[in-house]
Amino acid sequence: MTLTPLPAFDDNYLWLLDNGREALVVDPGDAAPVAAALDARGLTLAGILLTHHHSDHVGGVDALRSRLQGPIYAPAHEKMPEPVTRVQGGQSVDLLGLRFAVMDVPGHTAGHIAYFAAQVPGSDPLLFCGDTLFSGGCGRLFEGSPAQMHASLQSLAALPGRTRVCCAHEYTLSNLRFAREVDPYNTALATYSAWCEAERAAGRPTLPGRIGTEVHINPFLRCTEPALRDAARRHAPTQLPTAPSPVDVFAALREWKNGFR
Ligand SMILES: [Zn+2]
Ligand SMILES: [Zn+2]
Questions:
Q1: CB-based neighbours (< 5 A) of ligand 1, an ion
Q2: Nearest ligand, CA of residue 75?
Q3: What pLDDT sits at residue 125?
Q4: Does pLDDT of 99 surpass 90?
Q5: Nearest bound ligand to CA 10?
Q6: Ligand 1: distance of its center to the CA of 11 in Å?
Q7: If you measure from the C-alpha of residue 51 to the centroid of ligand 2, how many angstroms do you get, rounded to a whole number?
Q8: What confidence category does residue 31 fall into, taking pLDDT thresholds of 50, 70 and 90?
Q9: I need a surface site. Which of 174, 192, 206, 218 has the fewest CB within 10 A?
Q10: Residues 61, 81: contact at Cβ < 8 Å?
């Protein structure tokens, strides 16, 4: 199995997974880079996985239908380019001989879903999480509450540490700038930041990430850590109770990040 992040727009990755003959693509916001990759490598498009309704994730779907030889799986409760096969948390979908568990991860949008393959022959588990989890950060809360997003992120953080995290945007360096601001004494974060900066300087993606790394460096997965709780309380002393819950800390960090430059 070959996993390829196809760059699109300013900072999107359209994830292509193939077995040398057939491919699936996740969130094809633009058809052109997908078509070019399929043609260059002589691949058949066997299926499309969609995580949420934003146009940079679904905009290329209709233009890919003519070459599609399989299903389009999409969230049950979002506006989608029809026809699609609707799925939701608790279900699973089979593509390229892999079984993907569908997870409900509301927060960025109300009906956002993620796809997790626990068994990938010869490789580690795979997670396609759209705009829910980014390396060093998380999606903005356009439609969901902090409690929903926090629960969604916790369900992703509970996946096996080896899981490769296929995020839909290359936001890593800007996320890590914020992470270092709120978690300055985290040595794993400093080491990871240096590695990511070298990757970007060499023109390479920082993704896919790993769950086992994110749980140590991503402030939005670390809301129970005293360092993050104290940082949030120093930043928003009047808004936070003296003993804030993890959701309180998450909400304060997300607000802080929204205004962070
Ligand atoms: Zn989005
Ligand atoms: Zn996006």
A1: 54, 131
A2: 1
A3: 98
A4: yes
A5: 2
A6: 12
A7: 10
A8: very high
A9: 174
A10: yes
> Catalytic site residues?
52, 54, 56-57, 108, 131, 169
Tokens representing residue 70 in the block? 């399989």
Measured between alpha carbons, how far is 44 from 245 in angstroms, rounded to an integer?
Answer: 49
Question: 254 C-alpha vs ligand 2 centroid, how far in Å?
Answer: 17
How sure is the predictor about 23, in pLDDT bands with cuts at 50, 70 and 90?
Answer: very high
From start to end of the chain, where are the E strands? 2-8, 12-18, 22-26, 44-49, 72-75, 85-87, 92-95, 98-104, 113-117, 126-130, 133-134, 137-138, 164-167, 209-210
Residue 158 has pLDDT above 90, yes or no: yes
Handedness of CA 115, 164, 67, 64 (dihedral sign): positive
Q: Would you give the end-to-end CA distance of the chain in angstroms?
A: 39
